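Worked Example 4.2. Consider the chain below.
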Amino acid sequence: MSGKLYLCATPIGNLEDITFRVLRTLKEVDLIAAEDTRNSIKLLNHFQISTPMTSYHEYNKIEKGRKLVEKLLSGKNIALITDAGTPGISDPGEELVDMCYQEEIEVTSLPGPAACITALTMSGLPTRRFAFEAFLPADKKERKKVLDELIQETRTIVLYEAPHRLIKTLKELREFLGDRRATLCREITKKHETAFVSSLDGLLEYYQTQEPKGECVLVIEGKSQAEKEEESRKEWMKMTLEEHMKYYEEQGMERKNAMKQVAKDRGTTKREIYQKLLTD
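Applying the procedure from the previous section yields the following structure tokens:
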């Protein structure tokens, strides 16, 4: 019988946020794989947990992942923890999970703290639909590609950022997205927790005179549907009415239906399109 991999969420700041289930699991498993053992030992010592630990992080995830899978296949139960929050979110946990499923090893996730969800719920922005991007890519081409995609994103956007890169990222977001409502959450669950409800312009203005401190989560308003429709309408209006009609008719659309679609594209009525075509 193979062992089981437990993804254990740990506090993102306040130690009281750990669950009873996670504490019990960390005590009962055979091994704890931690992103940074120097950081995690503080957590284990606080809760008097003496389970052996090993490191599993971005730079050893393939080699160490194979060794962990071997242990799991031999019947050992392993808990995976990150420095803070839920494993598998913006850390190499996802690779280990994939390796386990390839070997038909059982995986379970013990819910708990996650900075992205905590920030989203306290942001004051819409929460029903959101796009989580974690940290923007460091590579310039990849970064631009993601930012280009976010321009048309209608869902609330959630990003992570380190304090020393915050101003640069805010400038890029302002350049690509324009000024949007935005909330900056920092030091979440800790003594100096703040949720700065503002806009990209407001955040930029503030942090150009105040040194950013603490890990940051940026929650940004998505593009409104009305804004997208207006941009689409402006693009269609670059065509003449005849060109617009021809565009649809060449696709095999009947003239009556083409007029209806053209009217929708241009934000007007089918009757108005018909009248203009008669007079042109």
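The longest strand covers residues 130-135. The mean pLDDT is 92. Compare this with Example 4.1 before moving on.
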